[in-house]
Write a structure and sequence with these properties.
CATH class of the largest domain: Alpha Beta
Structural class: alpha+beta
Strand order of the largest sheet: 8-2-1-12-19
Number of helices: 15
Radius of gyration: 21 Å
Largest sheet: 5 strands, parallel
Distance between the termini: 40 Å
CATH topology of the largest domain: FAD/NAD(P)-binding domain
Number of strands: 22
């Protein structure tokens, strides 16, 4: 099947793009392993939007810029916050069921937000509800079809542009390819992401020659469940927004729970080192079991399954890789540096998150920029009849190489030049594409900013108030 438009990824960004593309031609949405397995499904806390009575779009913009630590693209932030409210209303019109207090939408607060602006659904299943809504909308359109593949390997190219992709040996051609493959958290040993989040979209785009930007900025969520034998299940920041306290093994508070995520994550790492403990504790017991069970049903039941009753005992937690601020470099309409290739959602880098994503802006980014990328890519002209025959894959099919322990130890929450140099050497020899991109850009950024922290360069530098850009067969530049 050769559709007009190929969307790789079936999370919020990919589905929202597919809905727009369906008006312009046939759309094939493909995903790795399972159509319903994406980071969107795991997004618990909510979606940030300036819709409450005491909020303003400019306040949301200001909070996003502050969290981004001097590296946000202002135009991207303005687009996000201004187009957010109508995007949410559209989701509601399509059947999204956000939590309410009576007839009014219910809002909560998360770290670094100056207002209660986090909408949530079914307590702590917001991403799942938005993905459900968009999937049903997309599936109702006659031009949209879905397929899943065990492996998505590379992009097809012709005359310097992208004209399709290879899926487990099968070539699929299209007028335009839209990457919405999500994140890369699973390149690290500890991650809150689903197993499919291995940075495939970034790797494919890089091998094809696309520009990758800000890939060194990886957000480590401070509070993932740290129980032996349990997955690093995310304990949403919304728990701290509702009053959960961080305590060490002596039951002492040691940090501001609602500080930006990078600050809290480093505070936890330092406290774990100081106390020689494998974790700290998140304590919400003072809110009572009934409240926790009703407000966070999914989190409550998951913790219970692994022997932790949040209503009666603090949960052991530790940081884990969570979100990539960087990715395939795009403009505000999803265009990459390669003709025919577009990107949206976590795989893309519009600059909207800067050096550190503001909590709950990710789902909003997927909806807002997924729509914009869909509209833009719909205008891609049809290719000539000979394009498919002349399409080429950039090099031999890659072998997925993983080095999660090395990435955690040497490219994790606290970095040094010496460790990064060693990581670059080992990753280059191993052929681990995404991992090497992270290490090279982290080594080149000789400062600490947002989620990127280096012990040997602990301060922010005005000379690095630029976006890193790396491209195949080229070094790292800052623009």
């Amino acid at each position: 099947m050769d559709p007009d438009f190929l969307v790789i990824g079936a999370g919020v960004a990919g589905l929202r793009a597919a809905i727009e593309l369906a008006e312009a031609g046939t759309v094939l949405v493909v995903a790795k392993d399972s159509l319903r397995e994406s980071s969107s499904e795991y997004a618990q806390g909510g979606i940030a939007v300036a819709l409450s009575d005491d909020d303003e779009v400019w306040l949301h913009e200001q909070d996003t810029l502050l969290a981004g630590d001097g590296l946000c693209d202002r135009a991207a932030v303005r687009t996000l916050v201004e187009e957010g409210p109508p995007a949410i209303q559209e989701l509601i019109d399509w059947g999204a069921e956000f939590d309410r207090e009576g007839s009014r939408l219910a809002f909560t607060r998360e770290a670094a937000h100056s207002r209660n602006r986090i909408l949530h659904a079914h307590g702590d299943s917001t991403g799942r509800e938005i993905a459900r809504t968009l999937y049903h909308k997309a599936a109702s359109l006659p031009n949209v079809t879905f397929r899943s593949f065990a492996a998505i390997t590379d992009l097809l190219q012709h005359d310097g542009g992208v004209c399709g992709a290879i899926f487990g040996g099968e070539a699929i051609h299209a007028r335009a390819v839209l990457l919405a493959t999500g994140g890369l958290g699973c390149v690290f040993l500890n991650s809150t992401n689903p197993e499919v989040a291995t940075g495939d979209g970034v790797a494919m785009a890089y091998r094809a020659g696309a520009e990758i930007s800000d890939i060194e900025f990886v957000q480590f969520h401070p509070t993932a469940l740290a129980v032996e034998g349990a997955p690093r299940f995310l304990l949403s920041e919304a728990l701290r927004g509702e009053g959960a306290l961080l305590k060490n093994v002596q039951s002492e508070r040691f940090t501001d729970e609602l500080a930006p995520r990078d600050v809290v994550a480093r505070a936890i790492v330092n406290e774990m080192k100081r106390t020689a403990s494998p974790n700290v504790f998140l304590d919400l017991t003072h809110r009572g079991e009934a409240f926790i069970r009703d407000r966070f049903p999914r989190i409550y039941q998951t913790c219970l399954r692994y022997g932790v009753n949040l209503g009666l005992q603090p949960a052991p937690v530790a940081p884990a890789a969570h979100y990539a601020m960087g990715g395939v470099r795009t403009d505000l309409d999803g265009r990459t540096s390669l003709p025919g290739l577009y990107a949206a959602g976590e795989v893309a880098c519009t600059g909207v998150h800067g050096a550190n994503r503001l909590a709950s802006n990710s789902l909003l980014e997927g909806v807002v920029f997924g729509r914009r990328a869909g509209i833009c890519s719909a205008g891609t002209p049809a290719r000539s009849a000979g394009t498919n025959a002349g399409a080429m894959v950039p090099g031999s099919p890659p072998v997925r190489v993983s080095a999660p322990q090395l990435m955690w130890d040497q490219c994790g929450i606290i970095r040094t030049g010496e460790a990064l140099e060693q990581a670059c050497e080992e990753l280059d020899q191993a052929g681990a594409t995404v991992e090497l991109l992270i290490a090279r850009c982290a080594l080149a950024r000789r400062e600490s900013r947002g989620a990127h922290y280096r012990l040997d360069y602990p301060d922010k530098s005005a000379g690095f108030a630029k976006h890193s850009v790396i491209q195949k067969d080229a070094g790292v530049t800052f623009r």
